[in-house]
DNA sequence: TGCTTATTGCAACTCAGTTTGTATTTGCAA
DNA sequence: TTGCAAATACAAACTGAGTTGCAATAAGCA
């Protein structure tokens, strides 16, 4: 078992700093604001890139160890509640990030994903201004768009 | 084990009709034109939607059974040779289609993928005329784009 | 036809993720 | 503070996609 995002781990300080924000974000959405939920959400918030379940579990391992099944369940629950969203990677591993899910068609500001071919990390690029001019074959009724880039990220360029 | 694309299977007639074309496509690219390669490529050619390894194996099961490992290897080999390309699905399954791979950035005609939320099938939409006007955050150097739609396909609309 | 070697078939394996079940803990409200 | 439902921990078994190693086969060529 190896980390899917080897470099640039979340610092513990950054994680702790996001705990209040994580709690606040959960207050409205959750019946119960539990420690694992807060910890996992704070962990996601402190990252600038998408994290796999394993990344999350490992990031919290020393400070606040959480059962891997719970990590799975909480991450799925965060997605269900619209607090986070997940991205299918090229390596069949789900990665998670805080924020809105897939963007509806016909917005001019697109939520895009950028996967670095160098360091392997996936970033969310919010508000990518794109002008779509779709001419899909007749009969195809799109509801959502996913925009995915591959290339060099700002850290590896 | 369930099929990933339950409806609208490849008919055997359509598959047989594509065998000569498949052989011709392989002649230039392959050292050896083997039966599994021809069969699998003909199978891909006869489909109008993306097929998983399992779909291919199942489609050929009765007429021309091929070991599932061979299906994996041949499909990967087809991608490597530029004869087919693969798409990462939302269910952690690779799907394959004949044709060119990912489009480079800065082309105005985009090779897009459309996944139907109803029947679950993924289609390739070639030559989708899109006018991209990317403004990625500074430092991000994109090399490839993936454009992915979700919605209702022409069969389910 | 026989030779050579790429390719195939088979079996066993890895790995991410899921499921189930039970005992325990904990958030929250009465 | 107490009671209770919801959530977590832990263990274990399971699923399903994809991989690896090796012996057997068959495509192309002389």
Tell me briefly what this model is:
The first copy, chain A, has helices spanning 12-17, 19-29, 35-45, 53-61, 68-80, and strands at 51-52, 84-88, 94-98, 103-104, 109-116, 122-129, 141-152. Chain A is an alpha+beta fold and 157 residues long. In chain A, strand 5 (109-116) and strand 6 form a beta hairpin.
Layout of helices and strands, plus pairs?
The structure is a homodimer of 157-residue chains.
Chain A: H1 12-17, H2 19-29, H3 35-45, E1 51-52, H4 53-61, H5 68-80, E2 84-88, E3 94-98, E4 103-104, E5 109-116, E6 122-129, E7 141-152
Parallel strand pairs in A: 5-7
Antiparallel strand pairs in A: 1-3, 2-3, 4-7, 5-6
Chain A binds a DNA duplex (30 and 30 nucleotides) through residues 1, 31-37, 52-54, 66-70, 72-74, 91-94.
């Amino acid at each position: 078992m190896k980390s899917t995002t080897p470099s640039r781990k979340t610092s513990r300080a950054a994680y702790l700093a996001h705990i209040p924000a994580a709690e606040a974000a959960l207050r409205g959405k959750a019946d119960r604001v539990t420690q694992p939920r807060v910890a996992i959400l704070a962990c996601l918030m402190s990252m600038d890139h998408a994290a796999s379940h394993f990344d999350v579990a490992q990031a919290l391992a020393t400070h606040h160890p959480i059962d891997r099944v719970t990590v799975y369940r909480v991450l799925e629950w965060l997605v269900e509640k619209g607090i986070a969203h997940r991205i299918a990677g090229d390596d069949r591993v789900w990665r998670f990030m805080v924020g809105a899910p897939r963007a509806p068609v016909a917005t001019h500001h697109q939520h895009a994903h950028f996967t670095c071919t160098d360091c392997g990390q996936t970033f969310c690029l919010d508000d990518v201004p794109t002008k779509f001019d779709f001419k899909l074959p007749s009969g195809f009724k799109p509801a959502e768009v996913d925009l995915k880039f591959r290339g060099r990220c700002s850290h590896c360029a």
